[in-house]
Amino acid sequence: MGGTSNVGAHVLEVIGAAEGRNSRRDADVLASWRRCVNEHQLDPGRYAGPRIVTEQELNNHRQDSEELLGMARHGMEDLYRRVNAMGYVLLLANARGVTVDTIGDTELDREVRHAGLISGSEWDESNVGTNGVGACLATGRPIIVHRSDHFDMALTPLSCTAVPIHCTQGKLVGVLDLSHLEPPQDKMSQALTLEVMKSCARRIEMANLVRRHRSDWILRLNLSSEFLDVDPMAALAIGADGCVTGMTNNALELLSQKPGKTLIGQRFGEIFSYDLDDLPKLSRAMAPVDGALEVQAGGLIFARSVPPTASPRRAIEPTVPKPLRTIHNGDPAMRHLAERAAKVVDRQISVILRGETGTGKEFIARAIHDSSRRRGPFVAINCAALPESLIESELFGYVPNAFTGAHARGKKGLVREANGGTLFLDEIGDMPMGLQARLLRVLSEREVLPVGATKAESVDVRVISASHRDLAELVAQGQFRQDLYYRLNGLVLDIPPVRARADLEWLINHISAATEGKPCFSPQAMDLLLSHDWPGNVREIVNLCELAAAMCDGASVLPIHLPAVMTDRASSARSPANGTSEDELLQLLNEHGGNVSAAARAAKIDRSTFYRRLHKSK
After folding, report:
1. Residue 336: which of 39, 21, 64 has the closest Cα?
2. Which UniProt keywords apply (predicted)?
3. Ramachandran quadrant class, 239 (left: phi over 0; alpha: psi -120 to 50; beta: rest)
4. Of the residues 317, 333, 471, 603, which has the fewest C-beta atoms closer than 10 A?
């Protein structure tokens, strides 16, 4: 009963914070609670903990985080030596909130796993609510999330101290989190931990700046000359042209720069009242020097210059080809997908596209093909749409008169049609086992044997496969060849469903502009479209645009022109709860263990109405 009471109290406090009522919680924690309820639509009664990604997903995250892992590992090991055997677990999460490295007491393995403090745990605020990693990623600021500060009740035994890690260009690339499994009740007990964490992050960024900018001058900065050489507070990298090429993130604050502004690209003289040519005078080789610089924004700061240790070289930044840039309009997941795909467009690495039915796998596969230097055709085949008796001849072709009903001139087959280009195999999980063996030979031997032929022909094809089914699970069930799976499983790209995309309005307008008749949706109709779940994903949007174009014939599309499933749901969401009193709502909340979503469904009202009526009952 006490557990239910605690859940109820937690739910009411979170709802109160989301509605703007005062609380003794830290401002960043309250802001995170509001985001969780109002933006992420999370249930304050949730008791779930973080999701653990699959082993393949974790490998992909680690591959994408190689630079972060390299820059942070030494600092993590140094930090953990100081807190070893004190009940702490050290996590390194990437910019997507996934833990890519951990250090912890092996004797606490069971407790650590139970708390989700392991590699592969997903801490993005939109998934698990307020926590150290998620809140730090959302704000870019250090934070302590202590016990009941957590949004998810499963995490309330923990205390998490998190600090951001930035690359030399000022971009937030990860979070360092030190979590205590059994912390004291007093949040102030973690105040010293926060300072130690900030110091560790500063040293990690400092070491990374020195390593990556060997061909530039490094300018160490501190408010005190005594600690300038042993523990600088910040540093800048200055290129041969006198412009800032890199920085540690706290240099912004130290130099009184406006929040959100970057020092990258600013000229040395714009920041300091000092002649760039005199920069060598600040080095230890030319000591004694005063080391004091006048800052253009006001005040003095102590500085020590370190000359370049390598010859200047021009860095070449990877670019995303235009076909891949056009598959999104800023959605983070799609942008990440495009950036990863761009790295392999001209490499012999197989690609698997995963996602719900209708998410546009063929469109993305074609964008990958168009981004490459391959000059052969793009050939697509849906393995689930062809009868088993036809797949073999469609894929591999046949010689003249190979079987009864065969064409007298034979058939080239899709694999040979794709020679020099890309073969896209959609729904490959539905390919019969017998044909999987033949496809494996094509991929491994780079040759194809048409039906009825005695001599194989060489082919050069890039294979992109797709499935809405979990191929690894099919392998485990014996429904998909393991050797073929590992041959295909080069780069796995997960396509988000339409309902999860941040650029949904752009996607709808993009598809409508490509539809004959170019339907134009009114603001009221667009609001309904943006609130729709789109179970059919991109395919459903295409169908809707075609229907709207036919129904409106050039006129603006109004809500009345939309399918009933979209308008009826909106009307239902606005309907009040008939006959449900405030006391009954509280009873429902207790019956469902504080789960607001479940209680709202039982009351047959939407979550926002439930929150509003619950507040009136207090």
Report:
1. 64
2. Activator, ATP-binding, DNA-binding, Nucleotide-binding, Transcription, Transcription regulation, Two-component regulatory system
3. beta
4. 317
- Confidence label for 315 from pLDDT (cuts 50, 70 and 90): very low
Q: How far apart are the first and last CA of the chain?
A: 20
Q: What angle do CA 32, 38, 44 make, to 5 degrees?
A: 70
d(CA 364, CA 362): 5
3 state SS of 262: coil
Q: What is the chain's mean pLDDT, rounded? A: 86
pLDDT above 50 (res 576): no
Helix (H) or strand (E) holding 180: strand 172-180
E-assigned strand segments in 67-139 = 88-94, 99-104, 121-122
- pLDDT tens column, 170-222: 999 999 999 999 899 999 999 999 999 999 999 999 999 999 999 999 999 99
- Report d(CA 108, CA 84) in Å as an integer: 12
From the list 113, 147, 112, 111, the residue with the least C-alpha distance to 130 is: 147
- The span from the CA of 450 to the CA of 402, in Å, is 9
How many residues are present in the chain? 618
Q: pTM of the prediction? A: 0.54
Task: Give me the residue label for tokens 């990958």.
Answer: 368
For the record, the structure tokens of 530 come out as 């943006």
